[in-house]
Amino acid sequence: MACILQGAYVSSHRQFNDKDGSTPRPCSSVVVRAVMTNLETMKTTLCVPPPRPLKQRTELMSEGNFGRFGGKFVPETLVTCLSQLEAEFKKALHHEVFQEELATALREFVGRETPLYNAQRLSEYYKSKNNGEGPEIYLKREDLNHCGSHKMNNALAQAMIAKRIGKRGVITATGAGQHGLATSAACAKLDLECTVFMSAKDMDRQYSNVKFIKLLGAQVEAVNGSFKDAASDAFRCWVENLENKYFLTGSAVGPHPIPTMVREFQSVIGKETKKQALKKWGGKPDVLIACVGTGSNALGLFHEFIKHEDVRLIGVEAAGLGLKSGKHSSTLTNGEVGVYHGAMSYLLQDEYGQIIQPHSIAAG
Ligand SMILES: Cc1ncc(COP(=O)(O)O)c(C=O)c1O
Description:
Organism: Lupinus luteus (European yellow lupine)
CATH class: Alpha Beta
Bound molecules: pyridoxal-5'-phosphate
EC number: 4.2.1.20
Number of strands: 13
GO molecular function: tryptophan synthase activity
Order of helices and strands: HEHHEEHHEHEHEHEHHEHEHHEHEHEE
Shape: globular
Distance between the termini: 26 Å
Pathway: Amino-acid biosynthesis; L-tryptophan biosynthesis; L-tryptophan from chorismate: step 5/5
Protein backbone atom coordinates (compact mmCIF):
# COMPACT_ATOMS: atom_id res chain seq x y z
CA MET A 1 0.00 0.00 0.00
CA ALA A 2 2.87 2.34 0.71
CA CYS A 3 3.93 1.94 -2.90
CA ILE A 4 0.51 2.87 -4.12
CA LEU A 5 0.55 6.06 -2.18
CA GLN A 6 4.00 7.11 -3.16
CA GLY A 7 4.43 5.67 -6.63
CA ALA A 8 1.15 5.81 -8.42
CA TYR A 9 -0.21 8.68 -6.53
CA VAL A 10 1.67 11.39 -4.76
CA SER A 11 4.88 11.22 -6.76
CA SER A 12 3.17 10.98 -10.10
CA HIS A 13 1.55 14.33 -9.40
CA ARG A 14 4.68 15.86 -7.95
CA GLN A 15 6.98 14.83 -10.76
CA PHE A 16 5.16 16.05 -13.82
CA ASN A 17 7.33 18.14 -16.02
CA ASP A 18 5.03 19.81 -18.32
CA LYS A 19 7.29 21.51 -20.83
CA ASP A 20 6.33 18.98 -23.50
CA GLY A 21 2.91 20.57 -23.65
CA SER A 22 0.91 17.74 -22.12
CA THR A 23 -1.28 19.02 -19.32
CA PRO A 24 -0.83 16.91 -16.19
CA ARG A 25 -3.92 14.91 -15.33
CA PRO A 26 -3.20 13.59 -11.88
CA CYS A 27 -5.78 11.76 -9.85
CA SER A 28 -5.93 13.00 -6.31
CA SER A 29 -8.25 10.64 -4.48
CA VAL A 30 -8.05 6.93 -3.85
CA VAL A 31 -10.86 4.88 -2.42
CA VAL A 32 -10.08 1.51 -0.92
CA ARG A 33 -12.91 -0.92 -0.59
CA ALA A 34 -11.55 -3.91 1.28
CA VAL A 35 -9.81 -3.69 4.63
CA MET A 36 -6.12 -3.37 3.95
CA THR A 37 -4.02 -6.14 5.29
CA ASN A 38 -0.77 -4.27 5.65
CA LEU A 39 -1.67 -1.13 7.53
CA GLU A 40 1.26 -1.70 9.87
CA THR A 41 3.70 -1.31 7.00
CA MET A 42 1.92 1.83 5.98
CA LYS A 43 2.15 3.28 9.45
CA THR A 44 5.90 2.92 9.59
CA THR A 45 6.56 4.00 6.04
CA LEU A 46 4.25 6.95 5.92
CA CYS A 47 3.75 8.01 9.53
CA VAL A 48 0.02 7.35 9.21
CA PRO A 49 -1.55 8.41 12.49
CA PRO A 50 -3.92 6.06 14.31
CA PRO A 51 -7.65 6.51 13.55
CA ARG A 52 -9.07 9.49 15.38
CA PRO A 53 -11.98 8.89 17.73
CA LEU A 54 -15.35 10.12 16.46
CA LYS A 55 -15.66 12.86 19.06
CA GLN A 56 -12.44 14.48 17.87
CA ARG A 57 -13.38 14.12 14.24
CA THR A 58 -16.66 15.97 14.59
CA GLU A 59 -15.39 18.63 16.96
CA LEU A 60 -16.30 21.89 15.27
CA MET A 61 -16.42 24.51 17.96
CA SER A 62 -18.05 27.34 16.13
CA GLU A 63 -18.38 28.58 12.59
CA GLY A 64 -14.95 29.01 11.10
CA ASN A 65 -13.14 27.45 14.06
CA PHE A 66 -12.01 23.86 13.96
CA GLY A 67 -10.86 23.19 17.46
CA ARG A 68 -8.08 25.74 17.92
CA PHE A 69 -7.57 26.08 14.18
CA GLY A 70 -9.08 28.31 11.52
CA GLY A 71 -10.60 31.61 12.56
CA LYS A 72 -10.29 35.02 11.01
CA PHE A 73 -7.03 36.85 11.78
CA VAL A 74 -7.33 39.83 9.47
CA PRO A 75 -6.99 43.61 9.60
CA GLU A 76 -10.14 45.70 10.08
CA THR A 77 -10.07 46.71 6.40
CA LEU A 78 -10.93 43.17 5.35
CA VAL A 79 -13.63 42.43 7.90
CA THR A 80 -16.51 44.00 5.96
CA CYS A 81 -15.51 42.24 2.79
CA LEU A 82 -15.23 38.83 4.48
CA SER A 83 -18.53 39.35 6.29
CA GLN A 84 -20.21 40.12 2.98
CA LEU A 85 -18.69 36.99 1.50
CA GLU A 86 -19.85 34.90 4.45
CA ALA A 87 -23.39 36.23 4.15
CA GLU A 88 -23.46 35.57 0.41
CA PHE A 89 -22.01 32.08 0.84
CA LYS A 90 -24.66 31.20 3.42
CA LYS A 91 -27.37 32.54 1.17
CA ALA A 92 -26.05 30.59 -1.80
CA LEU A 93 -26.08 27.36 0.19
CA HIS A 94 -29.87 27.50 0.49
CA HIS A 95 -30.69 29.48 -2.60
CA GLU A 96 -32.68 27.29 -4.96
CA VAL A 97 -31.74 29.17 -8.13
CA PHE A 98 -28.03 29.23 -7.24
CA GLN A 99 -28.03 25.54 -6.38
CA GLU A 100 -29.87 24.69 -9.58
CA GLU A 101 -27.43 26.76 -11.67
CA LEU A 102 -24.46 25.18 -9.91
CA ALA A 103 -25.80 21.66 -10.42
CA THR A 104 -26.34 22.35 -14.13
CA ALA A 105 -22.87 23.88 -14.53
CA LEU A 106 -21.23 20.99 -12.68
CA ARG A 107 -23.00 18.56 -14.97
CA GLU A 108 -22.72 20.35 -18.29
CA PHE A 109 -19.61 22.54 -17.98
CA VAL A 110 -17.44 20.50 -15.61
CA GLY A 111 -18.66 17.08 -16.77
CA ARG A 112 -19.70 15.63 -13.41
CA GLU A 113 -20.22 13.08 -12.08
CA THR A 114 -16.72 11.68 -12.30
CA PRO A 115 -16.35 7.89 -12.34
CA LEU A 116 -15.33 5.81 -9.36
CA TYR A 117 -12.92 3.66 -11.34
CA ASN A 118 -12.01 0.16 -10.30
CA ALA A 119 -8.22 0.02 -10.70
CA GLN A 120 -8.29 -3.75 -11.24
CA ARG A 121 -4.72 -4.30 -12.36
CA LEU A 122 -3.36 -2.19 -9.51
CA SER A 123 -5.43 -4.18 -7.00
CA GLU A 124 -4.24 -7.44 -8.56
CA TYR A 125 -0.64 -6.31 -8.48
CA TYR A 126 -0.74 -5.80 -4.72
CA LYS A 127 -2.67 -9.02 -4.17
CA SER A 128 -0.07 -10.93 -6.16
CA LYS A 129 2.57 -9.66 -3.74
CA ASN A 130 0.60 -10.76 -0.71
CA ASN A 131 -0.67 -14.33 -1.32
CA GLY A 132 -3.76 -13.14 -3.15
CA GLU A 133 -4.89 -10.88 -0.34
CA GLY A 134 -5.21 -7.15 -0.61
CA PRO A 135 -7.45 -4.18 -1.09
CA GLU A 136 -9.78 -3.43 -3.97
CA ILE A 137 -8.57 -0.05 -5.11
CA TYR A 138 -10.84 2.51 -6.73
CA LEU A 139 -9.82 5.89 -8.09
CA LYS A 140 -12.18 8.83 -7.92
CA ARG A 141 -11.41 10.30 -11.34
CA GLU A 142 -11.38 14.02 -10.59
CA ASP A 143 -8.79 14.32 -13.35
CA LEU A 144 -11.65 13.87 -15.83
CA ASN A 145 -13.25 17.18 -14.88
CA HIS A 146 -13.04 20.03 -17.38
CA CYS A 147 -9.47 21.44 -17.15
CA GLY A 148 -8.17 18.26 -15.58
CA SER A 149 -8.61 18.47 -11.82
CA HIS A 150 -10.91 18.81 -8.83
CA LYS A 151 -10.00 22.52 -8.67
CA MET A 152 -12.86 23.31 -11.04
CA ASN A 153 -15.57 22.28 -8.50
CA ASN A 154 -14.62 25.13 -6.22
CA ALA A 155 -13.42 27.67 -8.79
CA LEU A 156 -16.69 27.58 -10.67
CA ALA A 157 -18.89 27.86 -7.58
CA GLN A 158 -16.86 30.75 -6.15
CA ALA A 159 -16.81 32.56 -9.50
CA MET A 160 -20.60 32.27 -9.48
CA ILE A 161 -20.64 33.92 -6.05
CA ALA A 162 -18.31 36.68 -7.30
CA LYS A 163 -20.74 37.35 -10.12
CA ARG A 164 -23.71 37.42 -7.73
CA ILE A 165 -22.09 40.03 -5.51
CA GLY A 166 -21.39 42.21 -8.51
CA LYS A 167 -17.61 41.92 -8.77
CA ARG A 168 -16.08 42.81 -12.11
CA GLY A 169 -13.19 40.43 -11.87
CA VAL A 170 -11.31 37.78 -9.96
CA ILE A 171 -7.79 37.64 -8.53
CA THR A 172 -6.12 34.37 -7.70
CA ALA A 173 -2.79 32.65 -7.15
CA THR A 174 -1.78 29.27 -8.47
CA GLY A 175 1.13 26.90 -7.90
CA ALA A 176 0.95 23.93 -10.22
CA GLY A 177 -1.37 25.95 -12.42
CA GLN A 178 -4.43 23.71 -12.11
CA HIS A 179 -6.31 26.14 -9.91
CA GLY A 180 -5.33 29.05 -12.16
CA LEU A 181 -6.55 27.13 -15.17
CA ALA A 182 -9.86 26.20 -13.55
CA THR A 183 -10.40 29.79 -12.40
CA SER A 184 -9.68 31.26 -15.82
CA ALA A 185 -12.12 28.83 -17.44
CA ALA A 186 -14.81 29.65 -14.86
CA CYS A 187 -14.23 33.38 -15.41
CA ALA A 188 -14.38 32.97 -19.18
CA LYS A 189 -17.74 31.20 -18.77
CA LEU A 190 -19.11 33.93 -16.51
CA ASP A 191 -17.59 36.93 -18.29
CA LEU A 192 -15.39 37.96 -15.36
CA GLU A 193 -11.92 39.47 -15.67
CA CYS A 194 -9.26 37.17 -14.28
CA THR A 195 -5.75 37.84 -13.00
CA VAL A 196 -3.60 34.88 -12.00
CA PHE A 197 -0.47 35.37 -9.87
CA MET A 198 2.14 32.66 -10.31
CA SER A 199 5.80 32.37 -9.44
CA ALA A 200 8.07 32.80 -12.46
CA LYS A 201 9.66 29.44 -11.66
CA ASP A 202 6.28 27.68 -11.60
CA MET A 203 5.32 29.40 -14.85
CA ASP A 204 8.34 27.82 -16.42
CA ARG A 205 7.68 24.40 -14.91
CA GLN A 206 3.97 24.42 -15.79
CA TYR A 207 4.27 26.09 -19.13
CA SER A 208 1.28 24.43 -20.79
CA ASN A 209 -1.07 25.50 -18.00
CA VAL A 210 0.15 29.08 -18.38
CA LYS A 211 -0.49 28.87 -22.12
CA PHE A 212 -4.08 27.69 -21.58
CA ILE A 213 -4.72 30.25 -18.84
CA LYS A 214 -3.75 33.00 -21.28
CA LEU A 215 -5.81 31.45 -24.09
CA LEU A 216 -8.80 31.63 -21.79
CA GLY A 217 -8.33 35.38 -21.59
CA ALA A 218 -6.76 35.68 -18.14
CA GLN A 219 -3.78 37.87 -17.31
CA VAL A 220 -0.82 36.11 -15.71
CA GLU A 221 1.39 38.05 -13.28
CA ALA A 222 4.86 36.58 -12.75
CA VAL A 223 6.15 36.80 -9.18
CA ASN A 224 9.66 36.26 -7.84
CA GLY A 225 9.83 33.45 -5.32
CA SER A 226 7.42 30.60 -4.72
CA PHE A 227 3.68 29.96 -4.52
CA LYS A 228 3.70 31.58 -1.07
CA ASP A 229 4.99 34.81 -2.63
CA ALA A 230 2.51 34.59 -5.50
CA ALA A 231 -0.31 34.20 -2.94
CA SER A 232 0.96 37.21 -0.97
CA ASP A 233 1.13 39.38 -4.10
CA ALA A 234 -2.36 38.28 -5.15
CA PHE A 235 -3.61 39.19 -1.70
CA ARG A 236 -1.95 42.61 -1.89
CA CYS A 237 -3.49 43.28 -5.28
CA TRP A 238 -6.92 42.27 -3.95
CA VAL A 239 -6.65 44.55 -0.94
CA GLU A 240 -6.09 47.45 -3.34
CA ASN A 241 -9.19 46.52 -5.36
CA LEU A 242 -11.70 45.34 -2.77
CA GLU A 243 -14.60 47.14 -4.47
CA ASN A 244 -14.34 45.46 -7.84
CA LYS A 245 -12.39 42.28 -7.36
CA TYR A 246 -13.02 38.93 -5.74
CA PHE A 247 -10.16 36.89 -4.25
CA LEU A 248 -10.78 33.32 -5.40
CA THR A 249 -8.70 30.81 -3.52
CA GLY A 250 -8.37 27.16 -4.43
CA SER A 251 -6.90 26.29 -1.05
CA ALA A 252 -8.70 25.21 2.08
CA VAL A 253 -6.67 27.81 3.97
CA GLY A 254 -7.19 31.46 4.81
CA PRO A 255 -9.61 33.34 7.01
CA HIS A 256 -13.20 32.22 7.58
CA PRO A 257 -15.34 31.64 5.50
CA ILE A 258 -12.76 30.55 2.91
CA PRO A 259 -11.86 27.04 4.19
CA THR A 260 -15.51 26.22 4.89
CA MET A 261 -16.51 27.43 1.46
CA VAL A 262 -13.78 25.47 -0.34
CA ARG A 263 -14.69 22.35 1.63
CA GLU A 264 -18.37 22.79 0.86
CA PHE A 265 -17.81 23.20 -2.88
CA GLN A 266 -15.41 20.25 -2.98
CA SER A 267 -17.67 18.00 -0.92
CA VAL A 268 -19.34 16.91 -4.15
CA ILE A 269 -16.40 14.46 -4.44
CA GLY A 270 -17.32 12.59 -1.26
CA LYS A 271 -21.06 12.77 -1.89
CA GLU A 272 -20.65 11.13 -5.28
CA THR A 273 -18.19 8.58 -3.87
CA LYS A 274 -20.68 7.52 -1.20
CA LYS A 275 -23.47 7.07 -3.72
CA GLN A 276 -21.24 5.27 -6.20
CA ALA A 277 -19.86 2.89 -3.56
CA LEU A 278 -23.37 1.98 -2.51
CA LYS A 279 -24.29 1.25 -6.09
CA LYS A 280 -21.09 -0.64 -6.92
CA TRP A 281 -20.75 -2.89 -3.90
CA GLY A 282 -23.64 -2.01 -1.65
CA GLY A 283 -21.57 -0.47 1.13
CA LYS A 284 -19.10 2.17 2.16
CA PRO A 285 -15.37 2.29 1.42
CA ASP A 286 -13.14 1.07 4.25
CA VAL A 287 -10.38 3.59 3.66
CA LEU A 288 -10.24 6.92 1.85
CA ILE A 289 -6.85 8.25 0.86
CA ALA A 290 -6.15 11.70 -0.53
CA CYS A 291 -3.03 13.72 -1.14
CA VAL A 292 -2.81 16.87 0.98
CA GLY A 293 -1.38 19.95 -0.64
CA THR A 294 -3.62 22.70 0.65
CA GLY A 295 -6.27 20.18 1.70
CA SER A 296 -9.06 20.89 -0.76
CA ASN A 297 -9.42 17.49 -2.44
CA ALA A 298 -8.87 15.67 0.85
CA LEU A 299 -11.58 17.67 2.64
CA GLY A 300 -13.85 17.27 -0.37
CA LEU A 301 -13.50 13.50 -0.24
CA PHE A 302 -13.50 13.11 3.56
CA HIS A 303 -16.24 15.50 4.62
CA GLU A 304 -19.17 13.27 3.71
CA PHE A 305 -17.63 10.40 5.69
CA ILE A 306 -16.43 12.27 8.73
CA LYS A 307 -19.20 10.94 10.95
CA HIS A 308 -18.63 7.35 9.84
CA GLU A 309 -16.20 5.97 12.33
CA ASP A 310 -15.82 2.77 10.34
CA VAL A 311 -14.28 4.64 7.40
CA ARG A 312 -10.60 5.48 7.81
CA LEU A 313 -9.52 8.81 6.41
CA ILE A 314 -5.87 9.11 5.42
CA GLY A 315 -4.25 12.27 4.12
CA VAL A 316 -0.82 11.91 2.53
CA GLU A 317 1.69 14.74 2.66
CA ALA A 318 4.89 14.98 0.63
CA ALA A 319 7.79 13.76 2.76
CA GLY A 320 10.38 14.91 0.23
CA LEU A 321 13.85 13.73 1.19
CA GLY A 322 12.56 12.57 4.59
CA LEU A 323 10.95 14.30 7.54
CA LYS A 324 14.27 14.64 9.35
CA SER A 325 16.04 16.14 6.34
CA GLY A 326 14.24 19.46 6.63
CA LYS A 327 13.51 19.08 2.91
CA HIS A 328 9.82 18.25 2.78
CA SER A 329 6.44 19.94 2.71
CA SER A 330 4.73 18.02 5.51
CA THR A 331 3.15 20.86 7.41
CA LEU A 332 0.59 18.74 9.27
CA THR A 333 3.02 16.01 10.27
CA ASN A 334 5.95 18.26 11.13
CA GLY A 335 4.62 21.80 11.43
CA GLU A 336 3.96 23.97 14.43
CA VAL A 337 0.91 26.01 15.21
CA GLY A 338 0.91 29.58 13.97
CA VAL A 339 -1.10 32.19 12.13
CA TYR A 340 -0.53 32.77 8.45
CA HIS A 341 -2.66 34.24 5.67
CA GLY A 342 -5.45 34.97 8.12
CA ALA A 343 -5.95 31.66 9.91
CA MET A 344 -4.42 29.45 12.59
CA SER A 345 -2.90 26.31 11.21
CA TYR A 346 0.15 24.06 11.28
CA LEU A 347 3.04 25.83 9.59
CA LEU A 348 6.64 25.16 8.71
CA GLN A 349 8.28 28.04 10.56
CA ASP A 350 11.56 28.96 12.18
CA GLU A 351 12.14 29.89 15.82
CA TYR A 352 11.11 33.50 15.06
CA GLY A 353 7.83 32.44 13.48
CA GLN A 354 9.06 33.13 9.95
CA ILE A 355 7.73 30.76 7.29
CA ILE A 356 10.25 28.22 6.06
CA GLN A 357 10.16 27.47 2.38
CA PRO A 358 8.80 23.92 1.94
CA HIS A 359 10.81 21.61 -0.26
CA SER A 360 9.19 20.32 -3.41
CA ILE A 361 10.57 19.11 -6.70
CA ALA A 362 7.27 20.06 -8.29
CA ALA A 363 5.55 23.32 -8.97
CA GLY A 364 3.76 25.11 -6.15
C1 LIG B 1 -4.46 18.07 -9.36
C2 LIG B 1 -4.11 18.51 -7.99
N1 LIG B 1 -4.31 17.65 -6.96
C3 LIG B 1 -4.02 18.02 -5.71
C4 LIG B 1 -3.49 19.27 -5.44
C5 LIG B 1 -3.20 19.61 -4.02
O1 LIG B 1 -4.07 20.60 -3.56
P1 LIG B 1 -5.26 20.27 -2.56
O2 LIG B 1 -4.65 19.61 -1.36
O3 LIG B 1 -5.87 21.60 -2.26
O4 LIG B 1 -6.24 19.36 -3.24
C6 LIG B 1 -3.25 20.18 -6.46
C7 LIG B 1 -2.69 21.52 -6.20
O5 LIG B 1 -2.46 22.31 -7.05
C8 LIG B 1 -3.58 19.80 -7.79
O6 LIG B 1 -3.38 20.64 -8.82
